[in-house]
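Hi support team,

I submitted a single chain yesterday and got back a structure, but I'm not sure I'm reading the token output correctly. Could someone confirm the output below corresponds to the sequence I sent? I've pasted both exactly as they appear in my results page.

Thanks,
R.
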Amino acid sequence: MLLGDGTMWSMSVSVLDLAPVVPVVVVRDAADAVPLARALVAGGLPAIEVTLRTPAATAAIRAIADEVPGATVGAGTVLTPEQVTESVAAGARFLVSPGWTDVLLEAMRGSGVPFLPGVSTTSEVVALLERGVREMKFFPAQAAGGTAYLKSLAGPLPQARFCPTGGIGLASAPEYLALPNVACVGGSWMLPEDAIAAKDWVRIEALAREAAALSAGGTRR
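Hi R., thanks for writing in. Yes, this is the structure output for that exact sequence:
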């Protein structure tokens, strides 16, 4: 699969390493999916998480997978094994859940695509490490303790890598990206609802480019 810069992405490369920010997209009208994804990719954000919160989500994933070659589209808010199957069949290249159970974890593991199970406590992190999972979503990031909590995990659990999501914006993202155990962050600040409603893809591309300028280490590229 081609990324926005023309290079190939394979599933041997972690989804956490595709970009410093993963846009978390809620699609209410499937017709918006392709132009929205094109704007994000043009702005430098190729990994796009479409949340399964609306009836249009699966169709949006399929459209992006079929029509936006620079995008690596994934499914978010994955809660059941059935959603795992449906999302991968639609073209999702990675899966993200807000939390996990053994049943959901095994379904994601068996899907053949990368996955990020959600955690918010130390015990959940340890349980995933015990099961051989080292890459996780930290959610809800701000409410669950933010950068202070993640920083405290880096010492005893350095093998765990996180994509914190929830309450993160352009101003706070660098604080997360500066942490050694944070590879990228998830957020939706580059997708203001009024811009989507107005189909202002130029504005979304500009906001995506601003987000893509962030890098691990908390600095701008």
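A quick pointer for reading it: Residues 16-212 form a domain with the TIM Barrel fold (CATH 3.20.20.70). Let us know if anything else looks off.

Best,
Support desk
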